[in-house]
Amino acid sequence: MIEIRNLKKVFDHNVVALEKFNLTIEDGQFIALLGPSGCGKSTTLNCLAGLLDPTEGTVLFDGKDVTRAVPKDRNIGMVFQSYALYPHLSVLDNIAFPLKQKGVAKEERYRKAKKVADTLQIKHLLERKPAQLSGGQQQRVALCRAIVKEPKILLLDEPMSNLDARLKIEIREVIKSIQQDLGVTAILVTHDQEEAMALADKIAILDGGSIQQYNTPDMLYECPKNLFVANFMGNPPMNFFKAVMTDKTHFSIGGTTLACKMELDTNLVGQEIKLGIRSHLMTFAFKKDAEHPLCLRVRIVENLGKELLVYGSVGDDEVRITYPDKSQYQVLKALAKEKGQVYLDLGNRYNVFDIPGGRNCVVF
Amino acid sequence: MKGKDLQGYAFLSPFLILVSIFYIAPAILTIIMSFSSLDGAFLWEFVGFENYGKIFRDPNTFLILRNTILYIVISMAIIVLLDLFIATLTTYFIKSDGWASFFKSIIMIPMITPSVVYSVLWIWYLDASDSGFINSFIRFFDTDFVSVNWIAKYPFQVIIIAQVVVSLAYGAIIFSSAIRSIPDNQFKAAHVDGAGEWEIVKTIIIPNIRPHIKFIIMWETLGLMTNYLNILLITNGGPLNRTEVWALSAYHKAFIDQQYGYGAAISVLLILVVFMIMLLWMFASKSKKEGEE
Residue range A335-342: average pLDDT? Predict the structure, then answer.
């Protein structure tokens, strides 16, 4: 088990990267630290690796304080965005390098290195130098090097950011399967929410050096704690509407009053709110009626293959809606050209964020 | 494209002309001179390979050759090792940029000091009299100390140390910028993999800057072969030719003994050796590249 308690990291010129950072990770779990650049996710990982000394707080591995321990005493493997292979060593020597540092005999370390190379399907590349490999192959070598000493913890610092879309998915599978097979605790740093969703058992969303929400991908997607999380998770991103609570069970969007179908944990009467709705949980009709009261001005329509994605606006708010009936593509295209309107139904599941706090007030 | 080529040549031509007048012409003149018995009387009498034969007959030639090789090999080895040491310390171990640049500025002082001033300083430091800096310094701790004529007693060591101190800065700065350009993640990976600091120097820093090390070895070798100013000013090749090196002996023969033809022949041999080393180096680095592809 990994416990991070009250971690704080201040860099030169008083730049605070992390503050009051707490996180507990169970053995064998796959955790993603997700957030925009500068949110402190890499700093957290480097503190876990022992490459950075935290300013305050403690890091515990299985109850043992390792806050000031050097990297080699932490039993970790690490993979970097830029692969960080040793350019003058062959692939085999790269993989065997951590074992060499541990003083494992030559034959033994080459045998182990060949074995992991075999599981990652790079056995035919062992004699080459890193410069002669493609990005995907280099990252496989880096993974081999990270797992060859059978670490307890695998740290992944944006390992897929330098790869193209197809390789990303390929390496994603590799990472997931070795994590499952080895049962190693893995911590992935990424800014790609899709990657985090696909790989992690639990995701910690970071912003401004603190955790916004730490939960399963599904909970983050369905029940975001605040506007930041809601904004960050999901593609296409969540739609937001400015509204005002007119009484306990009604709100108004641009003059149209609608019943609030969600139960709220606080009284927001008279206050401004933001509604957050996933693009697939709304629908629209071509005629205005009681079910479809809101005007949506259609701007663009995209054919995504399995469905349509309609871009438009309600008042000042930009909206994206997925529409499953592809036969309406030409109709919608014509509508988009003349900036025509369709009529929205907000659906039955949405989030209500208070303004300016941005907290999700819905009782789930 | 062709027009662009022409423009390039047109802009280069003033330099080419200057180089021809002031470098190539004297070089050719030197070669011609080396086949003559030109001396203080300025009579061009061609004597064929007489001057070259004289070099091999000269009883001092072997000593001078030995001095030159020892001087180059020892100085170069010390320079490259110290450069690596300084560059690693100031770039990798000392994380504070301020202290590192302060230290690097200090080692640059000898390099930017004019040779004459620098050599006079050494002569003053090592002065044989009781008032010599080193002698009085030692006497400060050991009152019974009898003054030593350092330059006369250890001439070879003195010129090597003096040369090393002047040459340090250049290589140290090249190495330290090379170390700075190694991706940080390689160091991080090595730390995670459990490598100690010495292991990091050995398996990351040195292999990464290998091309720079080769360049500095080449550069210092050529520099040490042809540059004799500090030796001239500190020991003037003495005592009894103990610090006479090849380039300095060409100077002595030509300008002190006024045997211009003989001096020219010595220079021509030196230039030939320099030229051969450069060719070898170019050939080696070229075949290395092809081998990698």
Answer: 88
What's the distance, CA A341 to chain centroid? 35
CA dihedral A82, A88, A93, A97 (to 10 degrees): -60
Is residue B10 included in any domain, yes or no? no
* Contacts A102 to B, Cβ<8 Å: 194
The pLDDT assigned to A141 comes to 92
Tally of structural domains, chain B: 1
Mean of the pLDDT values across residues B86-109? Answer: 84
Residue B17 located in a structural domain: no
Sign, Cα dihedral of B264, B270, B275, B276:
positive
What is the average pLDDT across B218-229?
87
Cα distance between residue A203 and residue A215, in whole Å = 6
Nearest CA in chain A to B198: A101
The four Cα atoms A67, A73, A75, A77 give a dihedral, to 10 degrees, of 90
The two tokens of residue B84 are: 């690596």
B21, part of any domain: no
pLDDT in tens, A223-250: 899 999 999 888 888 999 999 988 888 8
What residues have CB less than 8 Å from B192, skipping those under 6 apart? A49, A51, A71, A72, A76, A77, A78, A98, A155
- Provide the percentage of residues in chain A whose pLDDT is more than 90: 35
Q: Which residues are CB-contacts of A159 (< 8 A; sequence separation ≥ 6)?
A: A79, A80, A81, A139, A142, A143, A171, A175, A188
In chain B, which residues have their Cβ closer than 8 Å to the Cβ of A154?
A: none
Exposed/middle/buried for residue B217 (C-beta within 10 Å: 0-12, 13-18, 19+):
middle
CA gap B125, A232 in Å, rounded: 70
- Test A87 with B207 for CB contact under 8 angstroms: yes
Q: Is the pLDDT of residue B42 over 80?
A: no
Would you say the C-alpha torsion A135, A139, A142, A148 has a positive or negative sign?
negative
Q: What is the pLDDT of residue B289?
A: 59
Q: Residue B256: which domain range?
A: 34-292
pLDDT at A216: 93
Cβ–Cβ gap A78/B188 under 8 Å: yes
Rounded Cα gap, residues B205 and B178, in angstroms: 9
Backbone angles phi, psi at A13, to 5 degrees: 60, 30
Smallest CA–CA distance, residue A72 to chain B, in Å, is 4
Structure tokens at B153: 């007693």
Q: Taking Cα atoms as reference points, which of A227, A230, A207, A231 lies closest to residue A219?
A: A230
Read off the pLDDT of each residue in B160-177 and give the average, rounded to a whole number.
89
**Chain A closest CA to B186's CA: distance in Å?**
5
Residue B18, number of CB atoms within 10 A of its CB: 10
Q: Residue with structure tokens 């030995």?
A: B66
Total residues found in chain A within this entry: 364
Structural contact between residues B173 and B112, judged by C-beta atoms closer than 8 angstroms: no
In a domain, B119, yes or no: yes
CA-wise closest residue to B87 among B182, B160, B220, B157: B182
Kindly give the residue spans of alpha helices, DSSP state H, lying in A50-192.
91-101, 106-119, 135-147, 165-182
Q: Please report which confidence band the pLDDT of residue A310 belongs to, taking 50, 70 and 90 as the band edges.
A: very high
Between CA A148 and CA A139 the distance in angstroms is 14
- CATH number, domain containing residue B276: 1.10.3720.10
Residue A109 touches partner B, C-beta closer than 8 Å: no
Provide the pLDDT confidence category of residue B293 given band limits of 50, 70 and 90.
Answer: very low
- The CA distance from B244 to B86, in Å, is 30
